[in-house]
Amino acid sequence: MTAGTRVEVHPGREAVVEFDPELTFECVDECTWCCTHGVLLYEEDFYELAERESLDESTTQFRGEDFVKKEAKDRDEHVGDDGEACVFLRDDGLCSLHAEHDWKPARCSVYPLAVSVEDGEIHVDVRESAWEHCEGMNVSERKVIENLDAFLPAVLWELDDPASDREL
Questions:
Q1: d(Cα 119, Cα 142) in Å, to the nearest integer?
Q2: What gap in Å lies between CA 56 and CA 40, rounded to an integer?
Q3: 70-102 tens-digit pLDDT
Q4: Beta partners for residue 17, in sequence order
Q5: Which residues contact 68 (CB under 8 A, 6 or more apart)?
Q6: Tens digit of pLDDT per residue, the chain (168 long)?
Q7: What is the pLDDT, as a whole number, of residue 125?
Q8: How far is CA 87 from each of CA 9, 68, 133, 155, rounded to the nearest angstrom?
Q9: Parallel/antiparallel/unpaired status of strands 84-86 and 113-118
Q10: DSSP the chain
Q11: Measured between alpha carbons, how far is 120 from 116 in angstroms, rounded to an integer?
Q12: Residue 85 has what pLDDT?
């Protein structure tokens, strides 16, 4: 398989893969770099989050889009350069949404991939920032190409603009 190859991710739903098919990824303990940026909530995520947490306390709007809030944390670990991180990132470096509700927003599932739409097709590549900051790149046996259904929730094909380059 070469870059630009169409891969069926879900039944009848293909993505154009633009990354090396040998790429592996696994979240590693203590690496919470991706949790220090605002998480865009697609509409379905917004409603799913409302069933689990207070939207007033956990979300904000920026440029007309809903995001999970970042907040100042009283710690030195698991925070960005600004001392902030996702409101759901606990002191132990785990996501309370994932740990307590077995759920996470689509944008969190997608990481470290970048999703874009070209000519009506979903294209998937690796975020440049992931190569610079993410410790889970090529450290496991879990090939991304073989697990695309976990990285790319089916809801992405229902969105007008599933592009993942928007940040808070």
A1: 30
A2: 15
A3: 999 999 999 999 999 999 999 999 999 999 999
A4: 5, 124
A5: 38, 39, 41, 49, 58, 59, 86, 87, 88, 105
A6: 556 899 999 999 999 999 999 999 999 888 899 999 889 999 999 999 999 999 999 999 999 999 999 999 999 999 999 999 999 999 999 999 999 999 999 999 999 999 999 999 999 999 999 999 999 999 999 999 999 999 999 999 998 888 877 777
A7: 96
A8: 31, 7, 20, 24
A9: unpaired
A10: --TTEEEEEETTEEEEE-S-TT-BB---TT--GGGGSPEE--HHHHHHHHTTS-HHHHEEEETTEEEEPEEE-SSSSS--TTSEEETTB-TTS-BHHHHHHS---HHHHHTTEEEEEETTEEEEEE-HHHHHH-TTBT-SS-BGGGGHHHHS-GGGGG-S--------
A11: 10
A12: 95
Burial profile 50-69: b = 16 or more Cβ within 10 angstroms, e = fewer: eeebeeeebbbeeeebbbbe
d(CA 31, CA 77): 10
Strand partners, 40: 67
- Both tokens of 147, joined, read 């697990």
